[in-house]
DNA sequence: ACGGAATGGTTGTAGCGTCAAGTTTTTGGT
DNA sequence: ACCAAAAACTTGACGCTACAACCATTCCGT
């Protein structure tokens, strides 16, 4: 019960902390930043929509809306996938890359300052294992396994 | 980094799991349920809006909207606080009590099944301490301390 | 090789949360 | 005693997310 109440509080408070720093300093929501960051780390800065949805723990519908808005802002571009005519690729533009590079340091500092620095090295290790155990239940199909366990996928 | 990615994934996935079960089985969002639950545990099933906002880790603005909707549905009623004319009290109605009682068992089962049962007793203990450490940073003013550390405040 | 099911994606809508602004009452400094 | 600042909400507008419906393409069993 004690653990559960704390977990709820974290889930309720963390998004606000991340969003407001990024919104203020970079004009991006945390989810938008995360989408751009996942693209920036991919081959050719390009991913199929479904793959991107998995890496961002999101729905295709949600992602579709967000990518459209990012495209309107010139940070991302979409083009049909040559290999599968059903699929769409999303690629980071030069402006999108610049936006991630500009936003990253402040975001990392925020995460360290507000989250990780409060934990001992041992607790970080414990949290990693707890995270694995929880995600095994929350994401039973292992859809976004690629993110938190990059060796599979 | 591994711990951080897992924490993000949890924060992204957990609300959906909680909301969809409660929405489906009880017609309530998790936040609405939590508001009703906090009232149900309070003296006279009544709390001032500010106190309720702290216990639910939320903003007064957010809470005000939610309580208005709950009031429209007859689950809660609002009345001015006699001691402080600025303040508003929210009280659970009989229908609201019934709604919490009806929703609780399914919700508890869901939480156990999807979250806590995946952890060992030792991990639950670790999570409690990690939660304390994180909340000390996320909620530096200890606004909603009352929730996760009921002995103070 | 054909037809139904599954996959991949988009869009409209409705509901919820955030932000900024406003009102009223209380507190505190002088 | 007075006035400014703070506290306690409420409200309206706007943006984002979930849900459901939809279309196109590919897969697969027979």
From TrEMBL, chains A, B:
Species this chain originates from: Nocardioides luteus
SUPFAM superfamilies for this protein: Winged helix' DNA-binding domain
SMART domains: HTH_MARR
An example Gene Ontology biological process: response to stress
Organism taxonomic ancestry: Bacteria, Bacillati, Actinomycetota, Actinomycetes, Propionibacteriales
Protein name: MarR family transcriptional regulator
GO molecular function, one term: DNA-binding transcription factor activity
Ranges where the HTH marR-type domain occurs: 1-136
Secretion signal, residue range per the UniProt entry: none
PROSITE patterns registered for this protein in UniProt: HTH_MARR_2
């Amino acid at each position: 019960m004690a653990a559960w109440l704390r977990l709820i509080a974290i889930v309720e408070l963390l998004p606000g902390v991340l969003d407001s720093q990024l919104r203020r300093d970079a004009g991006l929501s945390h989810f938008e930043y995360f989408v751009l960051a996942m693209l920036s780390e991919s081959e050719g800065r390009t991913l199929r929509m479904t793959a991107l949805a998995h890496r961002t723990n999101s729905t295709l519908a949600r992602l579709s809306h967000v990518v459209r808005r990012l495209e309107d802002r010139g940070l991302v571009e979409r083009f049909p996938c040559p290999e599968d005519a059903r699929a769409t690729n999303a690629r980071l533009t030069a402006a999108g890359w610049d936006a991630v590079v500009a936003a990253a340091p402040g975001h990392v500092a925020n995460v360290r300052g507000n989250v990780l620095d409060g934990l001992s090295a041992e607790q970080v290790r414990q949290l990693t294992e707890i995270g694995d155990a929880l995600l095994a239940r929350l994401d039973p199909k292992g859809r976004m396994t690629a993110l938190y366990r990059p060796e599979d996928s």
